[in-house]
Amino acid sequence: MRIYSHQNVHTFTHPAGSFLICSQTFSSGKADPAAPEKMTVKVFGSPASTEVARVLTCLFEKDVEFQLIRVDSFRGPKRMPQYLKLQPHGEALTFEDGNVTLVESRKILRHIADKYKEQGHSKDLFGPGALERASIEQWLQTEAHSFDIPSADMAYSLAYLPPDMPLDGRGVGLPAAGMHPSHRQKMEEMLQLFEKSRKDLGKLLDIYEQRLGEEEFLAGSKFTLADLSHLPNADRLAADPRSARLIESRRNVSRWWYTISGRDSWKRVKELQRPPSAEAPF
Hints:
It is an enzyme of class 2 (transferase). Its EC number is 2.5.1.18. Belongs to the GST superfamily. Phi family. By secondary structure, the chain is of the alpha+beta class. It is 48% helix and 14% strand. The protein has helices spanning 50-61, 81-86, 105-115, 130-160, 181-214, 225-228, 231-239, 241-248, 251-261, 264-272, and strands at 4-14, 17-27, 41-45, 66-70, 93-97, 100-102. Strands 1-2-4-3-5-6 form a six-stranded mixed β-sheet. Strand 1 and strand 2 (17-27) form a beta hairpin. The two termini are 26 Å apart.
């Protein structure tokens, strides 16, 4: 699948000052010029957000033309006015498809997979029938309720803990002196959070290891939303050696991760996640 991207950069004036928003349109280049103009799908948010990354991956999988309006955290707390009308509290994600507006990534995945079922190379992302869809739903719920929180907690704790701090589970504590009490308290909290998330993820990934020893993917023999929904947070785990061992130490989970993270759709999202340079206007 070849993706074509067209980019516009807009300046908005606000009482807080002027700032830039980058708008990019992605299409496969297969549109019929004689066909009536369609209303473009719009995604408001930053590709660095796990919620947004899920949705973008699904859109690339289904070969859906869409416009990405980047409301990037790289630019701080400022938000463009039309985005704030949709998301007054500045949440990470807003999705528009005609008259449909959604803000929860997994609901958006279901919408895309249903509405654009016959598009793209992955026509069975949500399953060809009720039985397959039930299995996919089961794993979507597992990801949302059992994988998402501990994986996000682990990534958060590792971002705070020093990279050279031993985290081998042998009870290595903090330095006895030379640390401000408030900083020590925060470090202890992060260590506890890391240990809890490691235990929770370890138990869950043992279940995944068994399942992936029976099937190539979580819901069966084909890549589906069940696998796709894991990509953003699993990528965070794989990116840090201190958490990557959770994946690498399990042969079937490691094979599964290597397969799903190598998909063209996810590679495209990873390209979009690269922070802009200091010179870039977006």
